[in-house]
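<derive_structure_tokens>
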Amino acid sequence: MPRRKTKTERAAKKSGKLIRQKKLRLRRRIADDPGLQRDFNFLVECTHWPEEKLLSFLFWDCNMMSADVRSVIARRRREAWPVEESTLRRAINRIFKIAEQIQKINGTDLSPTRTIFFSDQDGEPLTARETKQRRAIFENLPEILRTYASELQRKAWLEVAFWRREKPNMELIVQMSRMNSLYEHIRSATGGYHQHRLHRLVNAARVDQGLPTITQRAFTVWLNRLKKRHQATHHNSTLT
């Protein structure tokens, strides 16, 4: 009996199928436009690449312009810190203070733990057992809040430590991605970017993926920056 595929394996297969369909759609878009097809054929001939290689590069790297270090780090930081770190730390301190205040109140006649009436959503009184459980939660609320704040503080510290290690790695990943991108591979294979032809093909890939087109000027500026980064990296490597 064949082994049943795991959920991860099924998801990977589905994702792979979707990517193949999108790449096929991009290839049809290029084939349906004589100008794009000429640009595509020109780059295939210049680079001596199989068509599939150029198509894959266009599919994966058409949004490379947004993969600068600052934007990548900013996106990763938003994922790691849905609340600003400073705001989170203030919230943790407030939770500790509120827990202390509630504990003081619970020791006075103002405490609602002894007088509150517990009922269900229809207004019916809870059973004696349920009432006792709810009252215990109220009485233990300060400790519950302290436990919550302590765990949140622990996770925040771990995230800070992780972030300090991760940031240099992310900068290196972005740099390596640029150096191994469609644009640098074309420059390396042909001696230039062929920016006008490449611009048209990149925009076709962007449109196919629902991304906004990029102007020729913005594309040229970005390629010039990419070239300067490459030259600076190459110069530093020769010095070392």
Notes: The chain has a mean pLDDT of 85. The chain has two domains: 30-67+171-239, 79-166. The two ends are 58 Å apart (CA to CA). The chain has ten helices and no strands.
